[in-house]
Amino acid sequence: MRGAPVLSLDSLVRLRRALQAAPGTPRRLPVPDGMTAPMGCDAVAVPARLGPMLMPRLPRVGCVYADETHWWWLVPSDSDYALEWPAPARYATGALLSGVPDLPGLIHRPDGTFPYTPPIPLYLAVCRLTGTTPTWSRRISA
Hints:
single chain; 142 residues; alpha+beta
């Protein structure tokens, strides 16, 4: 017979904070236990219908969270620098989600200790699926 799973102190603190969050308060996507985020964490959300189409287009998939309406990818902080993420994608600085009643569930956890999906391949895949030209490829008119 197996005993109850053992939770680290970090997990218990995260659970307590999640339970105490007031309605309407932005909630942070957690970095799973055993993983580190030395570059900080932001998140990119796309409509749930695009999620399954993005997964096979990426060379590496980091932590992915999902609910009925959106999928969120953890990316290193400042992955929006010099990039305009195309609609309907949304960029969440600090991996803070607003307007979600509950945190989405983790549906993919990569091997290793880093939770990140490489942002440039994710950006290019989102651009391709949305029919958007990447910002650095757009024509500049004088």
